[in-house]
Amino acid sequence: MTWTVVLTLAIGVVLKLIMSPPSAVVAWGISKFALHPKLNSNDVVITFNGEHLVEDDKTKFIDIFNEATFLKKYEIFPGNEELFLHPKTDVIPFVIHTKSSKNIVTFYVYRYEDHVDVVKQDKKKVVSYRLRADQLLSFTLSTKENRIKAI
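Above: the chain's sequence. Below: its structure in token form.
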């Protein structure tokens, strides 16, 4: 009789956790599949035109990138990945390299006059989307003179 009560109680607890998991578990599950994840400035390397960003610029850029609003996802058909990774445009992208669990994820951030496009490459999977980030459109790097003065 006691085994039946204990077993029923244990099954009830497991079912309750499955039907309405704690919010920490839900947040973790959603963050694993987020298209536009929140990045940590300590875990990323950002380059622009082949040069690494200074720590202040990197932190500022990541903060603005994290606050950006996701607008829409572009459809990429198999075979068209190169058109998104290396578009024929004069815009020089910011390249963000970060490590996500075991994989290295690369973000290419293209700033146009009126919008920001991001291409995310994880292994061989390529995803492209548009952000709304007015501060990212007006983001400027500190000049070399300012970097030398800061040192």
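Residues 145-151 have pLDDT under 50 and may be disordered.
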